[in-house]
Design goal:
single chain, about 625 residues, alpha/beta, eight-stranded mixed beta sheet, five-stranded mixed beta sheet, 23 helices, about 50% helix, elongated, binds adenosine-5'-diphosphate, binds magnesium ion
């Protein structure tokens, strides 16, 4: 809630609208106790007094009634009617929408066709017809305005509910034995309330206008009662001779509607869950870079990450997600990057191509050399040219990386077309070829499949094919098999391994599974709390891990034929990267920790191609390099 208010307050226009609205509402609430003249007392001697005349701050109308008093009483009435109409329309409309969306099928059909019928009439005509049937009067105008707005809410909320009603958490609630009413109120309603509030905040202004419109036509409030619409209606005859009688209520309507709409837009922006994660600012196309020192190139291998430092600046907090990480990948090599969830692996991978969302992400130091060029801070145009062409990514969840509405062949073709001009027929041939390369059977017919027609393993193959599409030098695979079951995982891994050997692509393979590393990687870097804590050839690490963290990680992996060894879990949790300890980040969970570990940052010790960041390693890498 405080976060919502904070977001709202950051939006200056919304804040202004909110302040004006609060002032207007406050005045309206205080009207009965303010020293105003009675609004309905006529005094024909004082007709059409100009504003600022004696005793009448805003002048008088055609019957000599005090305009200020009528304005405030009228505003009070108009606001009340508008709000009540909006709440009535929102409540009824949303209830209809939720029921229709949740039950679906025939219920949905009957309800929504009824709503469609209401929607088929022009708004104002429908309102007029309702008032004509019920008779003029403010209450009837309110009913009419609420009624014509019900379909708007019903349609909106039904759409949202249909999307939610088939989500897993609703099924789970059903399996837990919850009844329809309980599911509707505890599972569905909380999820649609933000949408209801948004829809309401953007329509209240409109409903106030509609009520004013009906009053203007003489169908709403009846004389001598004042509301903004009827004041305008009565002033119409004197529009030219005494414009102030129209201007006074006109300006008030304008101010109210504008301030409600500004506030409504702000509420929508602050409540919309899609806007919330980005704190209302669209991420930039490339991560912000603010480096103090820049390592000098040209770097080694196809990709040389040096002293990379990526942070998230959220409010006053600084999350050091990646802390001076250095990694080098040779052509055709597979480097494993392993660590628990949250250790900074993905952020490292994304930083290379400037893909970390900014804000809040900032690259504060280091470099990433690709063929001698530093990618960090490279102009966006250059980055775009390299993304997906020279350096490609494979992500964890193949369903969310593929577009659900486009055939996979088209998507493969698109990946190529972004970077190269290739004729249509050729594109299709290439797509088939790529699907064949990732061992999809019947590639010829599969190019025309949609992602949902494929299994998880096949979708991940398509994602790999997409990464291969432009024959990149480097593929960054971020937990590409985590979402797959074990047999499919084995197939995908052997596929990646074959591709690497056939095509000589270098792979940065991110995982949290030592079993996968053993199968895939030539070298491994172990990451913890945003830092590399150990790096060595795969065989060396598997034979003799040096860092206690590496050892503990390996103890978590079951060994086939490994006898009755107890599987270990590492006690405690990975550190929060905004509150890292001054010394070794693993110290709080380490069973070999000593005083010195906690005192100061631990430097990397290097020997014989191995490196470890530990004062008391499990294996002395200097003595026992292999
Ligand atoms: P993993 O090793 O599981 O891939 P990540 O690289 O995704 O871990 O995350 C590293 C750290 O960065 C985590 O501690 C995470 O909390 C933090 N982090 C990631 N994205 C953000 C963000 N947008 N704002 C703040 N912290 C973030
Ligand atoms: Mg990750």
């Amino acid at each position: 809630m405080t976060r919502f208010l904070w977001l709202l307050a950051r939006n200056q226009l919304a804040l202004m609208g909110g302040i004006v609205l609060v002032l207007v509402v406050l005045v309206c609430v205080l009207v009965p106790v303010l020293p105003l003249r009675p609004p309905d007392v006529t005094n024909t001697a004082d007709r059409f007094l100009a504003p600022f005349s004696d005793g009448h701050l805003l002048g008088t109308d055609h019957l000599g009634r005090d305009l200020l008093s009528r304005l405030l009483w009228g505003t009070r009435l108009s606001l009340a009617v508008g709000f009540v109409a909006a709440i009535a329309a929102a409540t009824l409309g949303s209830a209809i929408g939720i029921v229709a969306g949740y039950f679906g099928g025939r219920t949905d059909n009957i309800i929504m066709r009824g709503v469609d019928m209401l929607m088929a009439f022009p708004y104002i005509l429908l309102a007029l017809a309702i008032v004509a049937a019920l008779g003029p009067g403010l209450l009837n105008a309110l009913i009419a305005v609420a009624a014509v707005n019900i379909p708007f809410f019903a349609r909106n909320i039904r759409g949202i509910t249909v999307g939610i009603a088939h989500k897993e958490f609703v099924d789970a609630a059903r399996l837990a034995g919850k009844g329809h009413l309980a599911i509707l109120t505890t599972e569905i309603l909380p999820n649609v309330i933000p949408v209801i509030v948004i829809a309401m905040s953007t329509t209240i202004g409109w409903m106030i206008l509609e009520t004013a419109g009906l009053s203007f036509l003489g169908l709403g409030s009846q004389p001598p009662q004042a509301d903004l619409g009827s004041m305008l209606g009565e002033a119409r005859a004197a529009l030219i001779t005494n414009p102030h009688t129209s201007v006074v209520p006109g300006v008030m309507i304008f101010v109210i509607v504008i301030s409600i709409n500004l506030l409504g837009d702000g509420v929508r922006d602050a409540l919309d869950p899609r806007l919330r994660s980005g704190a209302l600012s669209r991420p930039r196309p490339a991560t912000n870079v603010r480096r103090e020192s820049v390592p000098q190139g040209p770097g080694e291998g196809v990709l040389d990450i040096r002293e990379l430092e990526t942070q998230f600046h959220v409010g006053k907090r600084i999350y050091r997600a990646v802390n001076r990480v250095s990694l080098t990948i040779a052509p055709g090599e597979c480097l494993g990057l392993i660590g628990e969830s949250g250790s900074g692996k993905s952020v490292t991978a994304l930083s290379v191509m400037g893909l970390v969302a900014s804000p809040p992400g900032v690259i504060t130091g280091g470099a990433a050399f690709h063929e001698g060029r530093d990618l960090i801070g490279a102009p966006y145009r250059d980055l775009r040219r390299l993304r997906g062409d020279r350096v490609a990514y494979i992500f964890q969840d193949p369903l969310s990386t593929l577009h659900p509405l486009i055939r996979v062949g088209e998507q493969l073709a698109e990946a190529i077309r972004v970077h190269h001009k290739v004729p249509r027929a050729e594109l299709r041939r290439r797509a088939v070829e790529l699907l064949g390369a990732v061992r999809i059977p019947n590639a010829e017919s599969r190019v025309d499949s949609y992602p949902h027609e494929m299994s998880g393993g096949m979708r991940q193959r398509v994602a790999i094919a997409m990464a291969l599409a432009n024959e990149p030098e480097v593929i960054i695979a971020d937990e590409p098999t985590t979402a797959l079951d074990v047999t499919v995982q084995a197939q995908v891994l052997s596929l990646l391994d074959d591709l690497r050997r056939e095509r000589g692509v270098a792979i940065l393979f991110i995982t949290h599974d030592f079993g996968v590393v053993a199968q895939m990687c030539d070298r491994v870097a172990v990451m913890y709390g945003g830092r590399i804590v150990e790096e060595a050839a795969t065989a060396d690490i598997l034979n003799a891990p040096a860092h206690p963290y590496t050892k503990r990680l390996m103890d978590c992996v079951p060994e086939l034929g490994g006898g009755r060894r107890k599987l270990d879990a590492i006690p405690g949790l990975p550190p929060a990267v905004d509150k890292l300890p001054p010394g070794c980040a693993f110290a709080p969970r380490c069973d070999k920790v000593r005083e010195a570990c906690r005192a100061a940052p631990v430097a990397m010790t290097r020997a014989g191609g191995r490196a470890v960041r530990c004062l008391y390693p499990e294996t002395d890498i200097a003595k026992d390099p292999a």
